[in-house]
Amino acid sequence: MKRTSFDTEDSCEDVQFFYEPVAGYGEGRPSNAEFSRELRKRTKRAAIDLINFMQRAGKDPALNVVRYQIIKSGTSVAANYRAACRARSKKEWYAKRCIVVEECDETVFWLELLMESDIPVEEATVRALGKEYQSLLQLFAKARASATP
Length: 149
What we know:
- The protein is mostly helical.
- The chain is built from 4 helices and no strands.
- The longest helix is centred in the last third of the chain and has 27 residues, at 90-116.
- The protein is elongated, with a radius of gyration of 16 Å.
């Protein structure tokens, strides 16, 4: 089932196809180094899954435009998080994290666009990718908000 656009053009509400609340912090929390390592793996895995999905998708002309944009933004999340982990200063780290948040949000946008459009795609896969990128977006946005440049 394809979704339609908002009723009003000036609406700023986000369509929450992929939203799931972030779990709270529990006991047995990993160290910062372990968390960072696992997050690098997670962002890389998400990018690979996105690339593989887009490779399997059809040859629709509209999909080609989305494919190009979504692969750029989805892989940029992993690349910029990796760069943030190697930042030479707190300001550089913060700047890279800001880019990660922007690229994650853009990736969620393109996935929402695929869900709402008539472009033929595997909706279950788009939904799974969307949940992962939405989860990453929440995590990175919260980290950015609690950090100081």
